[in-house]
Amino acid sequence: MSTRPPRRRVVAAGLAASASALLGSCAMGGAGGADGAPRELGGDDEEDGSGGSGRLSGKLTVWSWDVAATALKRLRGAFEERHPDVTVDVVDIGYDNAYDKITVGLRGGTGLADVLTLEGSYLPRYTANFPGGFYDLARRADRHRADFDRAAWRTVTGGAGGTKVFGIPWDIGPCALYCRTDHLRAADVDPKSLRTWDDYVRAGVRIKRATGHKLLVHDPTGAGMFPMLLQQQGQSSFRDGRIALETPAAVRALTLMKRLADEGLLAYEKNWDGLVTAHKDGKVTTNPIAAWWTGTLTDEMPELKGRFRVLPLPGFTAAGVRTSNIGGSTLCIPAQSEHPEAAWEFIRFVLTDKSNQVAMLKREGLFPAYLPALDDPYLSERQEYFGGQRANAVFARLARHIPPVEYTKDDAKEKDITISAVNGVLLHGKDPRASLASAARRLADATGRRRVA
């Protein structure tokens, strides 16, 4: 889930480091099948979700956190009505401890819930390190493949063309450009003119000259826009298992960020609180970020109602992709589950039901990875906070065009090295191409992976 990220952003770096240390120590445990292969949940989907084994029964434990746990607690009653011999215990394990608990459980082969929440970018890391740790749901889930966002589906299959399915996508974070319309008007900038990143930089110079406002925030404790800009161009820091930090797309992304820095358009603010305060105080005009930022605006800045609009991201070309993704999560079944049939049916009930998905968007702000939900009339309603704009409809259109990208078990190592390279360019004026080449060499040494030529 990605609608309430303040705590998540603050703790993410330390959490990733601790989880990465545990993950990196071994690839074992998980109570999988023979030779560490994942267990398969066989048989066809049936109406009762029992896979032909009869009526479902037992106590199902589900681990999640924050608003996602709230949503699951709300939906469990309807599921229990359908399956009166099943009880569902949703446990909010807290994001601060989630990945340490999951990693320890997978390593030890015991102690996990029947259903786990995992962020989409983390799932490939776990399935690579614990190949027998999760049920392969392919024989049940393949019939639903076309109903889910392509980029989110790739995270649950272990890569492009993957035949195994280790979870079902839940929510996604389609990206767009949130703009302060009062700042744009003061600088006589037409929002519709922001079609390319070149347009965006030129507009930023004009806005700064006319109003004194910076264009956007960069948090030097992270890699900033870099991962988002890479995915917009259809790649991550890896491609086909190789390090892809020296590709034209990577150089293009970091060169754009350097232009923004050189023009004095970045406001440097640390962590989530700095980002929120900069927008609340009007220091910056735009935020290229995911749909869940809407929840932060309405919760933290109600006094700014009517001053924001949502636009597609600028493209690297006028005809290029106008979105990307930040965040999103999945539900999966660990091989330790004592009730895998009931676990599957619960996941299917929550995530492949249009009304449930729309309700989670309305009430918890979880933007669906389930494409049929994006056609619901609710997403076309006008939103008062955005001056009557149909902002959800913008995200619904963009969500269908998020490029799928590759995640690996070495993402945590890549993140640390990329942050250093990005901030060397932005804060110390280093050359983007040379910095990325150096980062690629360091990552190759740390992982043993080859580099994309």
Computed structural class? alpha/beta
Low-confidence stretches: 2-21, 47-53
Shape annotation: globular
What is the CA–CA distance across the termini?
Answer: 36 Å
Major beta sheet summary: 7 strands, mixed
Q: Give the tally of β-strands.
A: 11
Mean pLDDT score, rounded? 91
Query: Any idea what the radius of gyration is?
Result: 22 Å
What features would you describe in this structure?
It is a single chain. The chain is built from 17 helices and 11 strands. It is an alpha/beta fold. A hairpin with a 2-residue loop joins strand 6 and strand 7. Helix 2 (66-82) packs antiparallel against helix 14 (354-364) and helix 10 (248-262) packs parallel to helix 16 (411-428). The longest helix has 20 residues, at 6-25. The two termini are 36 Å apart. 49% of the residues are buried.
Task: Offer a quick outline of the entry.
This protein has helices at 6-25, 66-82, 95-108, 123-129, 138-141, 150-157, 181-186, 197-211, 226-232, 248-262, 271-280, 293-300, 340-351, 354-364, 391-399, 411-428, 432-447; strands at 58-64, 86-92, 115-119, 168-180, 216-218, 238-239, 242-243, 266-268, 286-290, 308-311, 325-332.
Give the secondary structure arrangement, pairings included:
Elements (H helix, E strand, L loop, with lengths): L5 H20 L32 E7 L1 H17 L3 E7 L2 H14 L6 E5 L3 H7 L8 H4 L8 H8 L10 E13 H6 L10 H15 L4 E3 L7 H7 L5 E2 L2 E2 L4 H15 L3 E3 L2 H10 L5 E5 L2 H8 L7 E4 L13 E8 L7 H12 L2 H11 L26 H9 L11 H18 L3 H16 L6
Parallel strand pairs: 1-2, 1-3, 5-8
Antiparallel strand pairs: 3-11, 4-9, 4-10, 4-11, 6-7
Helix pairs in contact: 1-3, 2-14, 10-16, 16-17
